[in-house]
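Renewal narrative, Specific Aim 1. Our central claim is that a sequence can be written position by position from structural information alone. The example that follows is taken directly from our test logs and has not been curated for this report. It begins with the structure tokens describing the chain, in the order in which they were read.
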């Protein structure tokens, strides 16, 4: 199992936007074959229009190649592993011009290409290999262990596993619109007041994190949480959330609760964002283009629920709504220009379907009588608290249940649905070591139990600076590097909350615990 090594304590602003990194690995292959052909370079003129019409997602002037499909936007499209490694590492080198693709009737497919998507974009593999090499030059990497490759394997593993277990709420999974006026005005004002480079804070990415190629193209954050900035703070966050919620609810038909909102990320020249799905509970999301200085549009590439790749380009004030838990999304083509600033707004569905309610109301009106559906449309009323966006009978249901043992939900227990805290969490949080001891004695399975935000009792004890709690949990065998839904470890929280020199931080560091902050 590829374990990340302890990172040096993070300081300053940490990477925000919760994106997943798992600690499991796949046996993905790291072939080094590299070939041959040059990428044909048909670039699209920057579009000056900001209309949200269907054909303005990305101006394309390329013709599909022989055998290449066209997506619903008329773009010549392709599958996964073509622009970037998504389900396998490395990128496909199953070029369209190879004999078995040109004339399959007379050329059997060589075994190494069976099942490999056709590569239409040229030698993307060489570009990717260069990126990973640069990561290893920065973070170190040997033939036996490479933190960069390990995080890549985690990303790919999650991209395969998570989407198929997810409940989706829209047909295609994404939609481009103009941002609601209220959202755009607030964000724009905040940006205008703080866009001077002196306010950009370097994002401090966990060691070996490959979601962005930050080692060669640094990213910055203008955080709405940084109260030293004009207009920042909870008030602004609340306004942005409130203003965005209706729009996204209307799109998904689901009632939503706020999930995460960090600030404006600024990408710089050469930036790449690895294609990924977000860690739950970041489910229903929006990206808003705030500002850019680019030589050509920098598309976000998504894989629609129809399996096709789509490019979406955005002008300032454009917003892309997307189902970030199931929709693969990334920016695999390096940014050409000075900077690109965008903000991410994430929500979580509550399980209350607005469509259902409207539908039921209409039905009842037409029938002129009550039927036996309760109001509120909890059609998937669950006895075990499984979040509504995880499909039953899937691998994610299994995983969720493992990390939420013994969780039962009755209507009277709604609160435990929102926190998922166990008695072990409560005792750890309050520093009640005796209570914690007796809880663990009787309910050993709560040792590493996760609440709805992925916090374990050790996270709680570490954040709270309760040394005896942390020692007890560790002695009982608690896993020291669990990552919460933001991706953060207990040590990260201890350092953030109590400082590096605090006994809890020191104790965890002596154990070799990892200091990993929120991913993205
Ligand atoms: C949801 O979307 C993902 C990605 O497009 C897909 O793999 C999955 O099968 C979809 N879920 C359902 C229930 O159709
Ligand atoms: C997306 O844009 C890139 C870079 O311009 C291009 O190579 C690729 O073919 C486009 N993909 C789609 C689906 O339009």
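The sequence written for that structure reads:
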């Amino acid at each position: 199992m590829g374990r990340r090594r302890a990172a040096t304590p993070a300081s300053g602003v940490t990477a925000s936007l919760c994106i997943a990194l798992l600690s499991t690995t796949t046996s993905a292959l790291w072939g080094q074959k590299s070939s041959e052909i040059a990428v044909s370079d048909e670039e699209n003129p920057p579009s000056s229009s900001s209309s949200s019409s269907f054909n303005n997602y990305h101006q394309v002037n390329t013709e599909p190649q022989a055998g290449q499909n066209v997506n619903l936007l008329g773009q010549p499209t392709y599958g996964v592993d073509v622009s970037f490694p998504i389900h396998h590492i490395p990128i496909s080198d199953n070029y369209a011009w190879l004999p078995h693709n040109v004339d399959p009737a007379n050329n059997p497919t060589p075994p190494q290409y069976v099942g490999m998507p056709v590569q239409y974009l040229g030698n993307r593999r060489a570009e990717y290999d260069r990126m990973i090499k640069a990561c290893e030059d920065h973070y170190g990497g040997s033939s036996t262990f490479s933190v960069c490759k390990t995080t890549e394997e985690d990303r790919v593993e999650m991209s395969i596993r998570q989407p198929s277990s997810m409940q989706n709420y829209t047909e295609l999974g994404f939609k481009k619109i103009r941002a609601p006026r209220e959202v755009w005005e607030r964000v724009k004002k905040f940006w205008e007041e703080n866009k001077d480079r002196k306010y950009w804070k370097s994002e401090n990415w966990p060691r070996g994190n490959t979601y962005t190629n930050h080692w060669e193209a640094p990213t910055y954050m203008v955080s709405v949480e940084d109260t030293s900035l004009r207009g920042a703070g909870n008030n602004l966050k609340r306004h942005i959330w409130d203003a965005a919620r209706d729009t996204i609810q209307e799109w998904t038909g689901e009632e939503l609760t706020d999930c995460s909102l960090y600030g404006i990320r600024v990408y710089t020249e050469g930036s790449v964002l690895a294609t990924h799905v977000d860690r739950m509970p970041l489910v229903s999301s929006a990206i808003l283009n705030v500002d850019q200085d680019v030589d050509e549009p920098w598309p976000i590439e998504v894989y629609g629920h129809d399996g096709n790749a789509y490019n979406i380009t955005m002008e300032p004030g454009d917003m892309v709504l997307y189902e970030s838990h199931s929709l693969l999304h990334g920016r695999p083509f390096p940014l050409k220009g000075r900077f690109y600033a965008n903000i991410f707004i994430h929500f979580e569905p509550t399980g209350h379907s607005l469509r259902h309610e409207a539908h039921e109301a209409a039905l009842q009106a037409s029938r002129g009588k009550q039927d036996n559906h309760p109001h509120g449309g909890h059609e998937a009323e669950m006895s075990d608290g499984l979040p509504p966006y995880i499909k039953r009978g899937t691998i994610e249901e299994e995983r969720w249940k493992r990390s939420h043992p013994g969780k039962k939900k009755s209507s009277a227990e709604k609160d435990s649905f929102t926190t998922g805290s166990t008695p072990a969490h409560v005792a750890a949080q309050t520093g009640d070591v005796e209570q914690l001891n007796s809880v663990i004695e009787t309910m050993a399975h709560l040792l590493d139990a996760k609440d709805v935000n992925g916090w374990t009792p050790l996270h709680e004890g570490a954040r709270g600076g309760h040394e005896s709690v942390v020692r007890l949990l560790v002695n009982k065998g608690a896993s020291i590097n669990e990552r919460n839904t933001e991706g953060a470890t207990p040590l990260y929280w201890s350092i953030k909350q109590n400082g590096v020199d605090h006994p809890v931080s020191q104790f965890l560091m002596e154990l070799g615990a990892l200091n990993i902050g929120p991913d993205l």
